[in-house]
Amino acid sequence: MVHKETFVNLGFDTEQSDLRSKAGAGHRHSTLSSFKSRSVTYSWENIEVYAEEKRTNCFTRSPQVPEKILKNVTGCVGPGEFLAIMGASGAGKTTLLNCLTFRNTGKLKILGQRYLNGEAINIETLARLSGYVQQNDLFIPTLTVKEHLKFQALLRMDEIFSYDERMRRVNEAIQELGLTKCMDTVIGHADISGGERKRLAFASETLTNPSLIFCDEPTSGLDSFMAYNIIQVLKTIALTGKTVVCSIHQPSSDVFDLFDRILLMAEGRTAFFGPVPDCLSFFSSQGLSCPSNYNPADFYIRTLATMAGDEAESKKKIAEICDVYESSEASRLVSATAKANSTNSNPKIQESDGNKVNNSPYKVSWFAQFKAVLWRSFITVIREPTVFKVKMIQTIFIAVMVALIFQGHALQFVSIRNIQGGFLILVSNATFIHIYGVVSVITNEIPTFLREHRIGMYRTDVYFLSKTLADLPSDFIFPFVFTLITYHAIGLNVLVASSTENAINSVTPLVTPLMYIGGFYIQNSAVPAYLDWMRYLSWFMYGNEALSINQWVGIQFNDTACPDGVCIGEHILNDYDYNPDFYYRDILGLCALIVGFRVLAFFALLRKTYNLVSLSLGSLMDFEKIKGMLFANDANPDRAKAVVINLHRSTGGGGKEVGRITGGGGKEGGKSTGGGKLLT
C-alpha cells in the first residue's frame, strides 16, 4: 500500500512513490553545497572470502580446508544510488559489508578487487571519502546532542575550516536530520528516542559531507515507523548525489520500495543484483512468483533461506537460483559495469585543487585533538554529580568511623600496632575508593574510544592524557578529605609525604597481593625470596614505610611495656623491618610507580588500538597475475586460488588480504598503494 508520508524532519513534503523520480531533479537545496564532495562509483569484483585455517595439533588427523564464506561476489553502485544488501541470517551480508569497508577482516583471507572511480583503494582512501554508521550506537551519555556533534566537528573536519564554520555545519546537520527539538537534551536521558539516536549517528557521519556512506543494519531495534523514517533519511542523502550502501535484514514493503538497487545473497553467493523492479521478473522467470499483497522482501528472504529439516533441498534450490543469476544477462551486465569502473574512466579520487593531500590519519593537529578530548572529559566528570556525591559521602562516613575508633589513643606501647594499622587504612582506602570508579569508567568508555580512534579522530596518548587530567581533581580531593578527618584522630605527625596520595591512586589488578607484602601483615625479611621482587612494585610497602618513618623517627616516650621503660621510634621501625634511611627512597619509589603504572596503562590501551599491516607475497601481487604465471594453461581457477592461498600462508605474511583487495594491483602491475597507517 502506497501512502503519503510527510518529511517533517527533513524540511520538504513528498510522496513515497515520487522519491526515485526526483533523484536527479535537485528536489531541495542542500546546505552541504558549501563543503566539497566528490561523486564516486564503488565497484567490487570476484570477492572471495575464506575463514582462517585452524592450526593442526596432535589430535587433528589432517589439516582442515578453509571454509569459503563468500564466492565470486561482484557489484557496482554509483552516485545518487541507494543499494540494499539483503539475505537470510548467515547469507554473508555482514561479511561482504566488512570487506567493502575494510573492517573486522583480521581472521579472514580475501581474494578480489575493490575500486573507487576506477582506482584500487586502501583503508586510508576509503576512510577519507566515506562514512560508516554502525549497527550499535555508541555515545558518551553525559553530552548533549549538540555537544556530541560539536566534538565530532572539531575532530573530523579538516583544519582548513574555522571554528565558526564547524559550528555552522553542526547547526546545519541538526536541522537536516531533524534533531532541533532534542539538540540540548543529554544523550543518556530517556528523552532521546531510538530514532533520534540513529539520526544522531547519521549526523555524525554526514558532518564531513562524505561521498560514500555505509550503514550496518540501520533499522535494527526500531519499530516499523522509526525504521521507515530512518530509511527515508538515507534515501534523502542518496538523492543529494551520495552513494549509499546498507545491509538490512527484513524490511517492510514501504521500506523496500525506497531502495534503488538490491543485492540478494544466499550461502555466500549472489542470488540477484540489480534494480529493485527487475528482481520480481527475475524470480518469476524461474517459476517463483511473489504472491499478490505479499511483501517482496519477505518473499525473497524466505525463498533464499535454508529451511530447518529440509536443508538439502533448500540448498539445492538456492544453488539453482544463484546459478541462473550467474549465467544471466543481468549478471554479465553487472560484471561489465564493474570492469568498466576499473579502467579509470571516472574522475580521479585524489585532490584536484592542487592542495597537498594530508597523509596523516588524523584531520587536526595533536593540540587540537587534546583540547577537544580534554573538554569532553571534563564535561563527563562535571555531568556526573551523583557519582561525586556518593563517593564523597562514602569517604566521609568511613573516615568518621575510623576517627571514632582511633580517637583517644595515647602514645604508648600498645597503641603502636593501632597506629601502624591506621597507616594501612589510609593507603587501602585511597586505593579502593578509586579503583572501582576507574574500572567502571574505562569499561563504559573503551568501546567508544576504540571506535573513535579507529576512524582517526584522535590519538591514544591524547585520550589517555585527557582522562588522566580530568580525573586529577577527584584523585586529590577524596584522599585529602579522608586524611584530614582521620590523620589527627589516629595521632599521627603532621609532616607526611605528599606524593603518597598520588601513588596509591594507580590502578592495578594486583592490589591484594601487593597489600599483603606491603610490610604490615608480614615483615619484609619473611617474604619468600621468589616473591621478594614484588615488594618493589607495591605502593603499600613504600607508603607504609614512608608513613612509619615520618611517624617514628626521633620519637621517644616512656612506657613500662617497652625495654628499659623507654620506647624509641627507631626500634619500632626495626621491628617492622623499616629502614629510617629509606624515607626519600620510598618517596621516589612512589613517584616511579605513579609514572610506571600509568605508562603500562597507556601501552595496554595502545595495544588495543595497534593494527600493524604486514605485506606478504599475496598482498603484493594481483591474483590474476599469479594465476597467469603459474597456471597459464590451467582452466581450473579453484586450483589457482588454492595455490595463491598456500603461497601466502607459506610466506608467513601477517597480512590477511590477498590480491588487489589491499590496494595493490593497479596499473603499476600490483604495486601496493599503501596498507594503512598505524594509528597511535
Automatic annotation (TrEMBL):
Where does it localize?
Membrane
Q: Where is this region: Disordered?
A: 658-680
Q: Does the keyword Transport apply?
A: yes
Specify the ABC transporter domain's residue ranges.
54-292
Molecular function (GO) terms for this protein are: ABC-type transporter activity; ATP binding; ATP hydrolysis activity; pigment binding
Q: Tell me any Pfam family this protein matches.
A: ABC2_membrane
Q: Which UniProt keywords apply?
A: ATP-binding, Membrane, Nucleotide-binding, Pigment, Transmembrane, Transmembrane helix, Transport
Give the UniProt entry's GO cellular component terms.
cytoplasmic vesicle membrane; plasma membrane
Which superkingdom heads the taxonomic lineage of this protein's source? Answer: Eukaryota
Q: Where is the signal peptide?
A: none
The UniProt entry, under SUPFAM superfamilies, shows: P-loop containing nucleoside triphosphate hydrolases
Topology relative to the lipid bilayer, per the entry, is: Multi-pass membrane protein
Q: Does the keyword Acyltransferase apply?
A: no
Describe the family membership recorded for this protein in Swiss-Prot or TrEMBL.
Answer: Belongs to the ABC transporter superfamily. ABCG family. Eye pigment precursor importer (TC 3.A.1.204) subfamily.
Q: Which PANTHER family match?
A: ABC TRANSPORTER G FAMILY MEMBER 28, PROTEIN WHITE
Name of the protein in its database record: Protein white
